[in-house]
Amino acid sequence: MKITDSNVIRFHLQILHGITVKSLEKNKKRLFVGGSKIFGVPLENLARKYIPEFGLVPCFLVDACSFLLERAGTVGLFRKSGSLPRIKTLRAKLNSGEGCLSTALPYDVSTLIKQFCRELPEPLLPPELHAALLKGEALSSPQDRTSALQLLSCLLPARNSSCLHYLFDFLSKVSERCSENLMNCSNLATVFAPCLLPPPNKAEMSEGRLKLRVLVLHTFIESPHLFGVIPKAVMDSMEFLINFPLLKDARRGHRKTQSLKEKTAPWIPARSKVKPAVSEQSKESTSGEKPTLRRSIGMETFPNILLFRSCMPFAVQSFMPDAALSDSHSLDGIEACPHEILKRDLRFVNFSRFARGHGSESSPVPTGVGKLQLTPWRKRISI
């Protein structure tokens, strides 16, 4: 992440000034126009010239501004309109690739510059930034206003930023000769507001909103060296955040996970028609419902309780020794007859649930209102 990253700039705008900026639409359909046409053509289709201090600037704008800079003392420059027939002829010649600015009048050329900015398919200041620019200009502190506008100017695309920076620098030089041409920064901002910050609807054409638009351009014309430059205080805070050790580690971890996600192909498991067997303990732990009777005593193989009851007498007779059956005192006061024991002890209808004994070797026994103690011979019965 770099200091000039748009996300970092948006973060500081939100934290410092409370300004939320919409992301610029990058997937717009571009209009590609071939030939030497100048007016109504996107910036990327125009012939541009590299200026070291500003970058790539359209050749027409460089030639027109250089022509007017030599005649910057003309009274009412950009305020007075040129002749419409002459302007129409100049436009036709320029669109055909003919150079004709050297013989034109200053008012005609200044009108051509305004038309060039106004007829661009996409405004030099994108509509997504208009609301944020007006909100930044409405801040109470002058320092905050300048800082917010500087940060917003850093969000512009490179081709828009180069063109605007060059234009604001030129208008600033024109305003320096306001004693001759009577065009100060405020007057120039008023003239260029409809070209660079056009109101989208009638609600934005109120006096207060139009004044904010003029003030935005006034700030950039008066101080063109601040356009596209991050304020020093914000720069220091950005460097601190980017170089902070915890944030560095977090970014490294995010990059590693992101690279692994990109390298590893997504694996989608095939759906099996056979459902895997789930253990009884996991079912009891996951489901909060009370387990059923059959699952609690492990009797899935038995069709019903009646069969279980019918099998119990034979199990008792086979596993219980004769001595235990004959001895009436060995069962702690319970008669030794196995049929009587089963009738009295194995009455499932008298018990609400079954539980497992405390001993590890004991079998599941029924529990109800009265507690039953496990006797040694019962431990030997396997259900």
From TrEMBL:
Q: Where is this region: Disordered?
A: 271-293
**Biological process annotations from GO:** signal transduction
Q: Name one GO molecular function term.
A: GTPase activator activity
**UniProt domain Rho-GAP: residue ranges:** 41-228
Q: Report any Pfam family annotated for this entry.
A: RhoGAP
The protein's name is Rho GTPase-activating protein 11B
Recorded source organism is Dissostichus eleginoides (Patagonian toothfish)
